User: What shape does this take?
Amino acid sequence: MNTAIKTEGLSKTYKGKKGKHVDALKDLNLDVQKGEVFGFLGPNGAGKTTTIKLLMGLIYPTSGEFYINGIAGTSLSYKKMAGYLSENPSFYDYLTGEELLSFVGRTFKMSADAILEGSDRLLKLLDLYDARKRPIKGYSKGMVQRLGLAQCLIHDPDILILDEPMSGLDPIGRILVRDIILDLKSKGKCVFMSTHILNDIETICDRVGIIVKGELRLVESIRDIMAKGIKGYLLTFNTISGHMANFFKTISEDIELTKDFSPDNSPSPLLVKGGKGGLFSTCIIKQEDLESVLSEVIKDKETSIQMIEPVRKGLEELFTEIANED
Amino acid sequence: MVIILEIAKITFKGGMRDKVFITLLAVSILCFIILVPAISSLSMRQPREVSVGLSLSIISFVSLILTIFLGVNLVYRDMERRFAHPVISMPVSREAFILGKFLGLSGIIGSGVAILSAFSLIGITIASRLYQSSIPMSYENFIAAVFFEFIALIIVASASILFSSFSTNLFLPLFATVGVYIIGNVTQAVMDYINSPHGTKLPSPSIYLSKTAYYIFPNLTALDFKFNAIYSLPTSPAYMLTVLSYAILYIIIVLGISVLIFRRRELL
Ligand SMILES: Nc1ncnc2c1ncn2[C@@H]1O[C@H](COP(=O)(O)OP(=O)(O)O)[C@@H](O)[C@H]1O
Ligand SMILES: [Mg+2]
Assistant: This one.
């Protein structure tokens, strides 16, 4: 029983006018674990919001089912464990921020003390404390978004379902949201967040799913994506001998050497001590050559390495690749 | 139950903070205190009767406007502006939402009617002091009349909730609600006509149609106790109880249908 969100063949077809149908979500099978931060990535119109609205019982699946903490989505009680932030949150705008939070708290049957404590803490955290007694009508878009975050956190739910939590926020707001999500992660909460903005996803999420045109194309942990995405290593040398240069030549014809690097010119002009005015020479090698290169370097007294950095295909590149398939 | 009351409270607050609601109430209060005594005193013989009649008409007109305006505004707008979405995403059942909305709306209508009645009594008292009337004022009858006015209006409010529960545009619930009020006020008269000697000569489809309308639409004529209030006529408690049970049953059915429809509604 470690699954927080499970979907089985979840599908949604919107029936439009004149028999126009949109297959917004096709056969989604997903398992999101407790304590996991799951990034639900996809371009605009991919079906992210549709999935989230299905999970919150706002719309009903055409077929398939889902479970939250093991409770079927057909029952109401699973909603007690979840907090939801919609893409464009909209709250009764005649209420003040404080009144909204207390309404939410009471609906979740929290005690008056707990509501007061939680409301003050969250309003302060989300920089809305000064605006707490003003009607939401007068809030900016970013403030409503932050209030949305407060209202989905007030009852301290185990599962947070956030639709594009970063959109509509300024850089400071985004950092705030990122820190809040990281804090939730440290408390063992499950966060399911959709986004088409990839900033910070690598640091926030444990796992991501990429959905395109209603189909889930990939589910993978960030760590695996990072490991698999390694294309090679960038080596930076303090000094490099002609022998090493020739060795590089033997590994591969198409080794990328920085412009001044020439194995024929021995001793290499780059055989220069690093430091003031000195040159660093760098080259990129394939992942599988790393070990042999390193053992060669250790043997060679005239060569010393300053830095080894992985060169990887980032999430961004992977995302674009998958989104543009077919 | 707690949740239903929470929704009701929020709805009530929304009405109480509505500028149109406040303005309409303020204007009507001025009418009661200034206009009603002034006009009533013009009819030298029956100032009390005129002031009661006038006040009850103003109360029913103003509160009807409030009911239709708030009924459509507070329920339809919830869908339109997606205020309902965060509520439905909480552990709030669709039926709790509908019932809460209805209770909140009834609360606002009740407050509106109560405030209007209180101020109208001031006007009536002023008018009756100016000239003595032959028939004494019956406060019980006045209260019964406004109470049943309130009941008629919450029937109209339940209809506005029903139409808002499936409509995706504003005009359907708006006109349909006005329609229910108008038809609800004439079905009794039409029925009486059909049952009169003249009525039997009518073509059968129109008789059939009128009878159907009589059973489908609320009979608001039955809830009209204005006449008794104006002339201080006695009203039978048994009759009032029957009418009240009819109204409650009617509301339960309409809200039941609203719940069935709203359960299937997708909040896009
Ligand atoms: N109410 C609706 N009626 C018809 N089609 C819709 C509706 N809502 C969304 N869609 C369509 O469903 C697809 C998925 O939309 P959505 O879930 O909002 O995508 P995302 O949130 O990933 O941007 C899109 O093609 C969109 O046009
Ligand atoms: Mg979306």
Observations:
- Residues 231-312 of chain A form a domain with the Alpha-Beta Plaits fold (CATH 3.30.70).
- The interface with chain B takes residues 53, 56-60, 76-77, 79-80, 82, 84, 86, 88-95, 99, 103-104, 106-109, 148, 151 of chain A (CB under 8 Å).
